[in-house]
Amino acid sequence: MTEQSPALDNLLTESRTFPPSEEFAARANATPEWYAEAEQDREAFWARQAERLHWDTRWSQVLDWSQAPFAKWFVGGKLNVAYNCVDRHVEAGHGDQVAIHWVGEPGDTRDITYAQLKDEVCKAANALTSLGVTANDRVAIQLQMIPEAIVAMLACARIGAMHSVVFGGFSPTALRSRVDDAQAKVVITSDGQYRRGKAAPMKANVDEALAGAESVEKVVVVRRTGDDVPWTQERDLWWHELVDPQPAEHTPQAFDSEHPLYILYTSGTTGKPKGILHTSGGYLAHVAYTHHAVFDHKPGEDVYWCTADIGWVTGHSYIVYGPLANRVTQVVYEGTPNTPHEGRHWEIIQKYKVSIYYTAPTLIRTFMKWGNEIPAKYDLSSLRVLGSVGEPINPEAWMWYREHIGGNRCPVVDTWWQTETGGIMISPLPGVTHAKPGSAQRPLPGISAKVVDDTGTEVGKGGGGYLVLDKPWPGMLRGIWGDDERYKETYWSRFAEQGFYFAGDGAKYDADGDIWLLGRVDDVMNVSGHRISTTEVESALVSHPTVAEAAVVGATDPTTGQGIVAFVILRGGVAEDEAGGTEAIQALRNHVAKEIGPIAKPRQIMVVPELPKTRSGKIMRRLLRDVAENREIGDVTTLADSSVMDLISSGLRSGK
Ligand code: 6R9
Asked: Residues in domain AMP-binding enzyme C-terminal (predicted)?
């Protein structure tokens, strides 16, 4: 039965592989033996990873899973997360090492050493304490990518308060619902933020959001743009007036390993946003270990740059906690990648000699669209590891990244994980794995994942199905804030019998047993009874020389159940009338049929200037489904740029 109706058809195949170079392998942090070691004794393996941290009290038990699905890791252990990320590096004699090379969008810069970061975090911790914030209180942070965002997060961690970071671009309504749900006592924001060369107000939005918000006692405002802001006496305070005069001494208190660290809201496709709860010891061990192994990070040698926003989990785990625990020197960039020009990232890499660069497929495809000649103008020879996160990376985008950014020399690591998992779960290990374009390949040592069918039975090689995590891991969410039932229902009910965590993603094994991620199961298309993943059709489209980005959706079809409708963005230099003409569209449809089979041939292809994306670069396919099925466009509040839908609809109306 399951054989007749697989959860997902396996359509694309990939035969290119790239073994690690000998030089890289010889110095790699990770070794092939880790897989077997972790397999043999998972808990002992994780205990060794936890030893990367400073514990004030050592744990007595690695894992307590007796209250599943509520895990406890490093039971009885005590530590201070901020001390681990900052103070201990200063105490070990690295106070003068630059922690953050900050680059402002208008071109201003700041270098912050670990000693300076320690002073700032201590002052901010004292400031929050002076406002009455104590352990377990919630602090909402809506800030753009400025150093104060990182300082504020670490200050909360230092005093045991939970932060809830909200994207700088989110609307007042989105901020308000998060503030209310967490009952935040303090909100930290800025006067305004630079986006694409212009100053946009931030404080004014926050004021709108907080009208009548009863939990909020104080609003702390970082001065960034210098523009005038509305002010509520009694409630509002300038960061510089509050924080700067504080003493730079602050004794960190050791908190329980399971002390809550933060809440981060994920939008989810339906219902109110879920406040994902992370705790201290297990989470920090997970992100420190994965940052060390997956990026091959060498403290004091590498310059690391993760381009994520702090409002996304990637910013939490791979800008703040993992990297700082590992004594990174990192670039933090405030602005957009094309301000003031499309070579901005490459210019920054050249200037700071960035050696590890971690970004999202959406940006890689945007760089492809802008053209190869842009990165070619810069010296990118400092790079040695490239990472990708957020979406499946299409094999062609992977190849482009490897060639045009990595000079065919850098390993590319495609890292699969989620807000809920806390840290990276499935990824190649540089220096160990024979890399394969487009595949996240294998669960990391210490992690267990499987692809299963409807009944929870593991599928064989070449089979497609649902991705599940079948063993608990240290960085796992500890629940949904204030809603234990929803936590069990959302993640643990689908395969309750087997006790699997259901990630909500489709996946397949290839002939080698490597894992390929195939997009959210909600997006799977059903064409004449074939379950086709959006990812595979999109990858086939992107493998055509004229296409930079593609999004496909299933639209109701009277004969096939669903028909595939594709939206494509053309590559730089490709004239729209040439590539968007009837013949060219026909050629694209045939290309898909040739790459993956006639069943996947799009019914319709539309050339569009942009695609609707969330702030972390994920395509919002439900909005495109609305277009494809001629419906009114649904809720656009979590789009990075809400004008994109108008652009798409008007372009289609005018027949372009
Ligand atoms: C880190 C992050 C999680 C969802 C996840 C999946 C998609 C993330 C991916 C990937 C394929 C990758 N996703 N990384 N899909 N390959 N390397 O993105 O967290 O924002 O919670 O999103 O993103 O669909 O389930 P989050």
From this structure: 536-618
Q: Give the C-alpha separation, 55 to 110, whole Å.
A: 32
**Which string of DSSP letters, residue by residue, matches 8-77?**
B---------BPPPHHHHHH-S--THHHHHHHH-HHHHHHHHHTTS--SB--SEEEE-TTTTS-EEEET-
Q: What mean pLDDT, rounded, does the chain reach? A: 93
- At 418-474, the pLDDT tens digits run 999 999 999 999 999 999 999 999 999 999 999 999 999 999 999 999 999 999 999
Full-model pTM: 0.94
Beta-strand ranges (E) seen in 315-469 are 330-333, 356-359, 385-389, 412-415, 449-452, 464-469
SS3 165: strand
Annotated binding site for Mg(2+): 542, 544, 547
| Residue 250 CA, ligand 1 centroid: distance in Å | 37
Sheet arrangement for strand 356-359: 109-113, 98-103, 330-333, 304-306, 356-359, 385-389, 412-415
1-53 pLDDT, tens digit each? 334 446 777 777 788 899 999 999 999 999 999 999 999 999 999 999 999 99
CA–CA dist 652, 139 (Å, integer): 44
CA of 416 to the centre of ligand 1 (A): 6
Mutate which of 307, 389, 401 to test ligand 1's pocket (most atoms within 8 Å of Cβ)?
A: 389
Given pLDDT bands bounded at 50, 70 and 90, which one contains residue 639? confident
Q: Is the ipTM of this complex over 0.85?
A: yes
168 CB-near residues (< 8 Å, 6+ apart): 142, 143, 144, 145, 193, 202, 309, 311
Distinct helix (H) and strand (E) counts, the chain: 23, 29
Which runs of E-coded beta strand occur in 269-384? 274-279, 304-306, 330-333, 356-359
Residue 440 Cβ inside 6 Å of ligand 1? The answer reads: yes
Q: Is 517 close to ligand 1, i.e. is its CB under 6 Å away? A: yes
Alpha carbon 426 to its chain centroid, in Å, reads 14
Say yes or no: CB of residue 539 within 6 Å of ligand 1.
Answer: no
8-22, 84-98, 437-451, 597-611: range with lowest mean pLDDT: 8-22
Measured from the CB, is residue 266 less than 6 Å from ligand 1?
Answer: yes
The one-letter code for the residue type at 538 is: E
Q: Whose CA is nearest to atom 1 of ligand 1?
A: 418
418 Cα: distance to centroid of ligand 1 (angstroms): 5
Indicate the helix (H) or strand (E) that contains 579. Answer: helix 576-579
Q: Does the domain formed by 528-652 have CATH 3.40.50.10260?
A: no
CA of 60 to the centre of ligand 1 (A): 33
pLDDT tens track for 141-172: 999 999 999 999 999 999 999 999 999 888 89
Helical (H) or strand (E) element with 506: strand 501-509
CA of residue 199 to ligand 1 center, whole Å: 31
Instruction: Tell me which residue of 289, 284, 321 sits closest to 306, measured CA to CA.
Output: 321
Residue to mutate (ligand 1; options 417, 441, 520; most atoms within 8 A of CB): 417
Residue carrying structure tokens 């504020």: 152
Ordered by start, the domain boundaries in the chain are 528-652
